Amino acid sequence: MKLTCVSRELHPRHAFRISRGRRTEVRNVFVRLERDGLAGYGEASPNAFYDETWEGVMAKIEMARGFIETLDLQTVAGLEASWGMVWELVAPSRAAQCALDVALWDWLARRRGVSVTELMWSRKPAPVTTFCTIGLSSAEELAMKFQEMRRFPWIKIKSDAEASLRTLEYVRSRSTAQLAMDANCAWGAADLRALSKALKKLRVAFIEQPYPPERDAEIARSRSVLPLIADESCIVEGDVPRVAPLYDGFNIKLVKCGGLTPARRMLLRGKVLHRKMMVGCMLESSALIAAGAVIAQRTDYADLDGAWLLGDDPFRGWQFAGGVLTPPTVPGLGVEPEAGLFEAPSS
To answer: Could you state, in order of their start, the residue ranges of all structural domains in the chain?
Structure first.
């Protein structure tokens, strides 16, 4: 296989600027694998919280070039076996692993003439309803963001250490959407039981990651009346048996766990343990969102609004309208890059 790897800055739409830390862009890494006239595409969305950078991801992908370019991929079993071999070359970068793994799934599905969903789950992809997120916002920003989401079926609201319910109350008074609250590890000083009772009255479905991971042991003692979903506490598949007794469910993010291959294993393990599951994203193009939508075929929730938040998505993929992702009827992930993406300089 011929491997091409580039990086690209991605910018949120004006209404959804990343206000925390004054960041207004991210830099993602894109992979193309070509063989027999077919191309498969993958993406990594490196995040400094997990000690990942775009430069580090590209360097790790380069370490795997020799193996990838001599890989003779024929079956799903062979793809899964290659995941472990690639990990030996790119560790500890789960983001690099994700980009390569997603591209391999895309290429193999195209080779078979089926969607990745059919290759993985033996059924055609269905539309995916996704949470769309309102981050920390001024009153003016909140009004602007909600105006775009007012008819969306699922809305997730970010919180901080203040644990204010103002945004939630604003949205609930104007929307009948299913709501969720993402505390982003920030509620360590809050009374979680009292907060959960207030949120239940506002018909919130669940609370995501109220405490930082180092305080997971306190989750059971919090006596929350709402389901608690682990995010930062559940990064890779090895975390699932640890968090399952503590949380009601967990969030799967491909770029954190290393791609579609481990995400599938996490999902199947969660089913056995009777946990609720969500598939999430960072700020990502339609390439990685399409991969997340494959896992979303069997999760309880999806939080795949990353491409919708972009003002310059370099891929065409699943159609987003009204908070629902609709799959195209083509093989693979169903994505194609804009012209010139893989000819662009990487720096």
So the answer is: 2-114+338-343, 128-336
